[in-house]
């Protein structure tokens, strides 16, 4: 896997006496001109006021000018100092005060930079195992997510996905698997680590103080940065990474298409693709998922899933796992140890974690998917088992009030908006992993089933907690599970021209009985049995011949993360059909039967309920949205309906329109099957 361009192809020659004379006349100096080699068609007129030490190679200059934004520079080398450096063709390097141990690619722009330096044994922010010892205490460049004491330390690698980081962080009890991950990463990083630091083709570095022991990917832009040290910046022309004013990046790996700006600080951080970190955000010992947007705040020792949002100066997140699709509000203090005795506490929140204004949470706590938390200082550890719930605090009695299924009973607009917005915001070009964006997926459906069981067996929410509106919650959970079943089963039947339940059964084959646990595994939703099978293969270190179509060898050694990812590919390819099977099993549970015993009568009743459910969901979406346009507290600041509409827009916004269209189509599809299914 080639992530940056390194050694130039093509011959180099010694300078002629005339070229040396011309270079001297242009105020260039060298410790030994015999150690300066150039391209065959090198143009000495393009090198002025430069100093060369050690072995230096210089490419050709075939163009007169090069541009970045509104900056136009002459190609060539001007007012710069180079030690043991190779420079590609058509570079424009102006006022680089010191450069050593670098391999600079073609068409690179460098201007007004204090230092670009490296050593011969730099790690470039890539993790390594000291002395082949896989014990975490001998990790180099480790990142310590979720636990401040380093008990979940991982080694960063540019080839890793957020799923890989999740597995390494979570499955600590499996020592054999942990050793395998360390071995894979160590081998991977050795292959990726070049002998010299690299500034890749078409990179732009301007007005920057210092870059030390770092790898800069193709087409990356570094404009006004304070410091990049012991780091790797992933980039390419199709998904450029931009690092801007006053940014500091230390001991980190920055992913493709990142935007890091406005004095942000990263130390021991690995970011995914298309992440944005800006406005003085301070991140340490954290892994950040794809499409995350973080500004102003502080994040330390965290594993942050895809689609995370945190935009406020006074929000704080430490020693936590947030499963993605989260939104951390202003004043939130998540995992501050404010009532803890030691710094080994953890918070684990599944996707859709939404703590509101001035929420303060204590270690240790767990939260189901799409938990919304109202303002308050929560003094007790919380174990919220109810997805799509609202958690609030009764200050008078210090009781935690839980409203299960609140999103569906009181805020359907937010639920439906979440179903689409995360997918629409996924702008990744490098899609290194599959991400489940839909709020209704096997992981959240299984959580809803568990919540129904708890509500129907009289659960009180736990010590110091109280449940509200239990009956409404059960009805809402069942309705949304039916919606999930319809969204997966009915389109699949239409696309495959299946008219009846029997046709569907024949198409997808037998469904295994029993309950399966599903995980949001770093953005990928997968069942525990499927994951166990994959991890079992990784643990052995080999893929047997029957499990691979790419190798004619008896077995393939699992030596890179790319090979690990190939184990997930068959699962991802069949994920849609897997969801259809899960939806059928879920429908059977709703009907109090098994998938094998689902009848035409069950299916007919399901189709009728779906048509009613679609109307209910549309109505709840519209009514919860219209509150923003009718509640007195919302309208009192506007003098007229026209002013309100000009500021807020109209109630029927994109989320409402999308929901109406989706539910109309689903209801119509259910109606089209109603006849044949009977």
Helix content: 25-40%
State the helix count: 15
Please give the oligomerization state of what you see: single chain
Mean pLDDT: 92
Please indicate the percent range of residues in DSSP E strands (runs of 2 or more): 25-35%
Number of strands: 48
The secondary structure category is alpha/beta
Report on this structure.
The chain is built from 15 helices and 48 strands. With 678 residues, the protein is an alpha/beta fold. The strands form 8 sheets. It has a 24-stranded parallel β-sheet that branches. Strands 1, 2, 3, 5, 6, 10, 12 and 16 form an 8-stranded mixed β-sheet that branches. A hairpin with a 2-residue loop joins strand 45 and strand 46. Helix 6 (442-456) runs antiparallel to helix 7 (470-495), helix 7 packs across helix 15 (654-677) and helix 12 (600-630) runs antiparallel to helix 15 (654-677). The protein is elongated and about 95 Å long. It starts with 12 loop residues before the first strand and ends with a helix.
Sequence-ordered SSE layout with sheet pairings:
Layout: E1 13-14, H1 17-25, E2 29-30, E3 36-38, E4 47-48, E5 51-53, E6 56-58, E7 65-68, E8 71-74, E9 76-78, E10 81-87, E11 92-96, E12 99-104, E13 109-117, E14 128-129, E15 139-140, H2 162-170, H3 175-192, E16 197-199, E17 204-212, E18 215-216, E19 221-223, E20 227-229, E21 232-233, E22 242-243, E23 248-250, E24 253-254, E25 259-260, E26 265-271, E27 276-278, E28 282-288, E29 293-295, E30 298-304, E31 309-310, E32 316-322, E33 327-328, E34 333-334, E35 347-349, E36 354-355, E37 359-361, E38 365-367, E39 372-373, E40 376-377, E41 383-384, E42 390-394, E43 399-403, H4 406-409, H5 412-424, H6 442-456, E44 465-467, H7 470-495, H8 501-508, E45 518-521, E46 524-527, H9 528-540, E47 542-544, E48 555-557, H10 561-573, H11 575-590, H12 600-630, H13 632-635, H14 641-648, H15 654-677
Parallel strand pairs: 2-5, 3-6, 4-9, 5-10, 6-10, 9-11, 10-12, 11-13, 12-16, 13-17, 17-19, 17-20, 18-21, 19-22, 20-23, 21-24, 22-25, 23-26, 25-27, 26-28, 27-29, 28-30, 29-31, 30-32, 31-33, 32-34, 32-35, 34-37, 35-38, 36-39, 37-40, 38-41, 39-42, 43-44
Antiparallel strand pairs: 1-3, 7-8, 14-15, 42-43, 45-46, 47-48
Helix pairs in contact: 5-12, 5-15, 6-7, 7-11, 7-12, 7-15, 9-10, 12-15
């Amino acid at each position: 896997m080639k992530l940056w361009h390194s050694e130039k192809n093509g011959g180099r020659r010694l300078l002629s006496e005339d070229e040396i004379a011309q270079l001297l006349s242009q105020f260039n100096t060298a410790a030994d001109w015999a150690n300066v080699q150039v391209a065959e068609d090198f143009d000495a007129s393009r090198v002025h006021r430069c100093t060369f030490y050690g072995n230096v190679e210089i490419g050709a200059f075939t163009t007169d000018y090069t541009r970045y934004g509104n900056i136009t520079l002459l190609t060539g080398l001007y007012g710069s100092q180079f030690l043991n450096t190779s420079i590609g063709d058509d570079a424009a390097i102006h006022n680089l005060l010191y450069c050593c141990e670098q391999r600079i690619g073609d068409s690179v722009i460098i201007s007004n930079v204090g230092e670009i330096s490296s050593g011969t044994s730099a790690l470039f922010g890539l993790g390594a195992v000291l002395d082949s010892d896989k014990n975490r205490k001998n990790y180099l460049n480790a990142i310590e997510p979720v636990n401040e004491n380093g008990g979940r330390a991982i080694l960063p690698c540019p080839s890793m996905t957020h799923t890989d980081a999740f597995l390494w962080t979570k499955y600590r009890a499996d020592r054999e698997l942990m050793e395998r991950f360390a071995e894979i990463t160590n081998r991977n990083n050795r292959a990726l680590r070049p002998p010299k630091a690299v500034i890749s083709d078409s990179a732009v570095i301007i007005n920057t103080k210092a870059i030390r022991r770092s790898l800069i990917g193709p087409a990356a832009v570094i404009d006004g940065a304070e410091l990049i040290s012991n780091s790797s910046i992933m980039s390419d022309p199709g998904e450029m990474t931009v690092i801007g004013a006053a940014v500091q990046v230390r001991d980190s790996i920055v992913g493709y298409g990142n935007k890091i700006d406005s004095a942000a600080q990263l130390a021991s951080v690995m970011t995914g693709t298309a992440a944005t970190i800006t406005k003085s955000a301070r991140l340490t010992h954290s892994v950040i998922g794809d499409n995350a947007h973080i500004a102003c705040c502080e994040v330390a020792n965290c594993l942050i899933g895809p689609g995370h949002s945190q935009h406020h100066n006074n929000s704080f997140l430490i020693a936590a796992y947030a499963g993605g699709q989260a939104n951390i509000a202003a004043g939130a203090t998540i995992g501050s140890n404010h009532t803890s005795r030691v710094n080994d506490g953890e918070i684990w929140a599944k996707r859709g974690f939404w703590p509101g204004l001035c929420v303060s949470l204590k270690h240790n706590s767990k939260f189901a998917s799409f938990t919304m938390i109202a303002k308050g200082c929560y003094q007790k550890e919380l174990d919220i088992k109810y997805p799509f719930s609202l958690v609030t605090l009764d200050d008078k009695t210090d009781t935690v009030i839980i409203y299960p299924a609140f999103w569906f009973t009181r805020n359907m607009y937010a639920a439906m908006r979440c179903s689409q917005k995360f997918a629409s915001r996924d702008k990744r070009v490098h899609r290194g992993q599959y991400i489940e964006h839909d709020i209704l997926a096997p992981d959240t459906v299984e959580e809803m089933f568990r919540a129904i069981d708890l509500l129907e067996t009289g659960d009180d929410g736990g010590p110091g907690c109280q449940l509200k509106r239990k009956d409404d919650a059960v009805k809402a959970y069942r309705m949304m599970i039916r919606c999930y079943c319809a969204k997966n089963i009915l389109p699949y039947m239409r696309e495959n021209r299946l008219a009846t339940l029997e046709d569907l059964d024949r198409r997808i084959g037998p469904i295994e009985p029993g309950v399966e646990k599903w995980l949001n595994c770093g953005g990928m939703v997968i069942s525990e049995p499927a994951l166990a099978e994959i991890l079992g293969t990784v643990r052995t270190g080999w893929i047997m011949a029957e499990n691979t179509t790419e190798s004619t060898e008896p077995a393939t050694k699992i030596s890179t993360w790319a090979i690990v990812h190939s184990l997930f590919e068959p699962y991802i390819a069949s994920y849609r059909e897997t969801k259809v099977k899960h939806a059928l099993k879920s429908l059977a549970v709703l009907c109090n039967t098994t998938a094998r015993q689902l009848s035409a009568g069950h299916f007919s009743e399901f189709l009728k309920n779906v048509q009613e459910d679609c109307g209910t969901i549309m109505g709840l979406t519209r009514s919860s949205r219209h509150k923003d346009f009718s509640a007195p507290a919302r309208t009192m600041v506007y003098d007229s309906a026209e002013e309100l509409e000009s500021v807020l827009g109209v109630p029927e916004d994109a989320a409402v329109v999308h929901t109406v269209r989706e539910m109309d189509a689903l209801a119509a599809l259910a109606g089209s099957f109603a006849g044949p299914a009977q």
